[in-house]
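Appendix B: complex inputs.
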Amino acid sequence: MKGITVLILLFGTFVSAQNLQMQQDSVDVQLDEIVIIAAKKKKIETEMKMAVSVDEFLASSDNISFIKRGAYAWEPLLNNMSTERSIITIDGMHVFGACTDKMDPVTSYVESNNLAEIDIQSGQAGGLNGATVAGSIDLKRKSTSFGLSKKWNAAYQTGFEFNNNQFFNLGNASYSGEKLVAEGSISYRKAENYSDGNNDEVNHSQYDKFNTSLGLAYKTSDLSALRVDAIFDKAKDVGFPALPMDLSLSRALITSVAYKQFFENGIVKVWDTKLYFNAVEHYMDDTTRPENLVHMDMPGWSTTYGMVSKINLKKEKFASEIQLNAYDNLSIAEMRMYPQDRSERTMFAFSWPWVTTQYAGLSTSNTYDISEKSQLNFGGALGVNYNYSKYVEFNRIFHPSASQEKTRFLPSLHAGYNLDINQFNLSVGGGYGHRAPSVSEGYGYYIYNSFDRYDYIGNPDLKNEVSYEVNASAGYKTKKGGILAKANYFYIQDYIIGRILSAGSPMNYQSVGVKGYTSLDNATLFNFSLNGKYTVLKDLHWKGTLTYARGLDDNKNNLPFIRPLSYQTSLHYAYQKFGFSTSLNGDYKQINYSPEYGEDQTPSYTNWNASANYTFYIDGYKTVFQVGAENILNEYYSTYADWGNIPRMGRNIFTSLKINF
Amino acid sequence: MKLIQFTVFVLFVVVTSCTLDKTDYEAELVTETTEYIEYEEVTAIVSENYTIRIEALNGTLYKGYNEIHLKINNSQTNESLDNSEVTFLPIITDANGNKSSCPHAYNLVYNDNEGYYTGYAVFTSESDSTVHWEIYIDITDNGEVTTVNPAITIAEQNNLNLNMTAFTGNDGEHYFIALVAPQSPSVSQNDLLAGIYKYNKPTSNAGTFPDASQYSYSVVKNHTLLLDPRMPEPSMGNHSSPNNQDLTQESDGLYYGVVNYTMTGNWTLNFILKNENDDIIKGTEVSTEFTPGIEGEKGELHIDILF
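Resulting structure:
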């Protein structure tokens, strides 16, 4: 009995943030929860496509949109805010990309077969892992529990996509013993250039990605376990059609050691401490572009050491998580130029002049059940953020009095109230929080942004960005379906954005001027989404989403990268061993675009997709075969957030096969 | 447990191997430009009554600006000669045997604390098989004048940050601009020091050689040197930097300004020299356009540097 409880707890806490309610309830309830979580675990696939990349999976969430510079490593925007404003973690570990141009968001260093789920928190509710404005995206790794009845589990997935000749093989296996758990995954994807809706090849859109992960857990006692995890990711020959350069190699090693202790009695339920280390190297260069007279290498390195320790408490109607987070990151990026021959290097500068960021924060998130029907959530954090620029002379060129060291205090608070009345669900909430400028915003030096074609200069003495946020949602559910409306509004003080510097002279070959990161007095952002689902027939399900957002600066001008009115609607039909899906998604014409920040108007587009799958058994192993097509009408389009208006992929027929052992 | 140990070991090996080496920035700056701070002996002249030691940075006289220290010892009394009148006149003899000089401090100033005479010279060319330099030093001690004229060697200045230029101004006068500092700039805000000199055309006929009145130079006073630094290479597209300050004269006679170098490489310091009435003595404005692929245009008056 005890064993089961431990197992359940382990399972729950490794997998889900929803474990707070689970710990003291009866075992029956816990088992129910597990079923739900197990269902959730399979969700690194969309209804349309079972072999999705992490990016494609994230794209199916209604508060995530993407900036795309090619076919690879899309930058996720949460609540229409870029990655400086959100916290992206892997199992709570901070990882920072090594590319000054944000060509390696954290999501590019994992693969769908080493993830169990992705936990997205909007706004200050995501402040548990660190200071944020937009919210948090936590990529949760797969974690097998101890003593499963089926000791060995494995899955293999392969597929081919015809548009860009993408061939992928993903495999993972796990062993679950009474005392020891071992699991691993390995994957390789290789894609060539894709073709747009006019059947023209988009040059420099190929990629090649290898990813592997390993996890070992050892049960040190009935109530404790030690776990070691590692992910190694390597991408090479990745083209970025929207940029003047490509990625020759990127590597990431993400490691952690965690010790978890459960407590049977008392209000402390779990204490989980993790030490982690990760190193990222990212080498961009433009030798693949012979048209450039001068060549530039832009290597970057990012190394992070960190610790996260959390305890979960529960007493009667009150549940709480308290977390201590600390990390130390060193970010280095260089610019090296040479006319044609790399050995004849003539020019050099740091685009990140050895910038150290140290953060320590204590945060808490609490739930109080006022009644069966209503619930109060509240929490807060206090963080200390310290920056040090080793070669501060680079920063002092534009900001002569720039300080070499900077310490900031980052408080945050949030509260929400949730009420269920019969079939209705209502919630309201609010939040307040600070964030420190990112390394680029604070210390970046001639970072070329090919969207507006400006070189960006950081300012070490920028003020903290302060966010005030309100959110609300209302839902109605019946047995056959439901509808949910969600809205949030952010008022962001000292909003950091690039403004043209008249003093500067561009450095990068293709740039037109220099922008400095400055603080606008304020900016506001409004996000709205409407989700509906309905079971038309027993096996015919409909789902739809509509999103709208608006962002304004202090002069009531539009902010850039705000998604226009967009929709997604899909039908899913199951017939015996067959499943059929079809979906439409698209954006309306971008009305509120922002010429001040380099945007032009993007026309509307619609994508029609369809897929079919068939489930059968080979030697008793469940096998699913899927075939489908994306952008069936071969529409030529680019979205509001496509860098340089590069066209998206045209018609793409995809196939995949998955076997579970 | 062994497996864990093994994994940790493998991870450690992977971590410590970086594919591409980071640039050692400090080392890179030093290899391009060496900064000399020690004054060392260039040569010592032993005359009947005196031993004269000439000292300069790194013990070498270079083309361009050189601060010069003279230590004079009375070999009779074996005491150093303080507070005397010492003059210093460099003379160059070219391939045709023509003699001329270069900007220099004729009357050396005695530095009480350090016990030497200080001056400077802006040597305008290197010594070679056809170009010879010598100096004429007159020491007046108790009304008695001793003259020595050692030959000296002027070495090539490899550090372009101490480069110089000579030109004829719009007023017909002959001018010299020599960079004095920084010897070893960095990607940062650098204090830029330059000496500006002019040749004083002789008003009388030459007397007995060497007649100092024929080789007279003076520090240009109260002018302004407007500065526009740019990277001339085609790949840099006429790149410039912000927050630079024009050079103005300070009490030591040198001109002080601020130059910002945004990256290492070749830079051209474009100058416009203006007199106290704001008339342009020399120099033209250069284009401020960003022109990738085209070699940056240099102004009429400029000095090239590299670091």
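The radius of gyration of chain B is 24 Å.
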